[in-house]
Design a protein that fits this description.
Length: 264
């Protein structure tokens, strides 16, 4: 699947919208409130020209896998959001449950998922993370989710690699297992990858025409250099005020992005 199968414009800018705590968390405010807050954030992105939104629930206290109660709630939220907005939506459940992301996307009509972990075994503050890509892709096929794009991080932020593997090898493995796009990040939230790092990923990914997206640190200051090399962006920090999308920050960023796109 290609980016143009999902997004109208080239080099899509995808905002990340964080849900309030879902069912099962003590601070769950009720599904109507979860939907209301998320919808407002997505509509802000939509109004200023973002090409899509990734909806996630990296809620604390952190858990590794989604419960059935959490998944059912997420599905209900996403069904409403997909129906109410025009831009394509994606799903990311927690940090380490791409199966749940695929299921929710399939059930709700979302167009893509992001998984921080796909082909790399890493250590994080929450423990060791490792996905079996073969099993994940079999599951994707079994639930008939071939129309859901899978965007996979390689050697992701907030994590230490537990195996000796070059960045090039991680990209090669991600593509070979069926990633529809490869995501490259800096070392931490709000930190962008270097242009050199993006180019390294692009060099390998372009062999199969796989798009490369930047997944952290995109802002007005580095927008021009990143958009010259990346095929798209997933971003949140630069347009948030606290955990919510700030309309004026989002508007200013997209005005800059549109002027850059015209140049390149």
């Amino acid at each position: 699947m290609k980016l143009e199968d999902i997004f109208i414009h080239q080099k899509p800018i995808i905002g990340v919208v964080r849900l309030l705590p879902l069912a099962g968390y003590k601070r769950f405010p009720g599904i109507d409130r979860v939907v209301e807050v998320a919808l407002k954030d997505i509509q802000k992105l939509e109004k200023v020209g973002f090409d899509g939104a990734l909806v996630d629930n990296h809620t604390h206290p952190h858990v590794i896998k989604a419960t059935e109660k959490m998944k059912d709630c997420f599905i209900k939220v996403m069904k409403f959001l997909v129906k109410e907005v025009r831009i394509p939506l994606g799903v990311q459940v927690l940090l380490n449950d791409p199966k749940a992301s695929l299921l929710i996307a399939k059930k709700s009509g979302a167009k893509f998922i992001r998984t921080d972990f796909f082909v790399d075994k890493v250590k994080t503050e929450h423990g060791v993370m490792e996905i079996n890509p073969e099993k994940l892709m079999k599951y994707k096929k079994n639930i008939k989710a071939d129309d859901i794009a899978l965007f996979a991080d390689v050697q992701v932020k907030h994590a230490t690699m537990l195996e000796k593997k070059s960045l090039r090898q991680s990209v090669k493995e991600a593509v070979s297992w069926g990633a529809d796009g490869v995501i490259v990040t800096g070392s931490w939230t709000g930190v962008s990858p270097s242009v050199l790092k993006i180019k390294k990923v692009k060099k390998e990914a372009k062999k199969t025409s796989t798009p490369v997206l930047v997944g952290s640190g995109f802002n007005q200051d580095n927008a021009q250099e990143i958009l010259k090399v990346a095929d798209g962006v997933l971003m949140a920090s630069a347009v948030r005020m606290g955990s919510r999308i700030n309309y004026f920050k989002a508007k200013a960023l997209m005005e800059k992005v549109l002027s850059i796109k015209k140049e390149i």
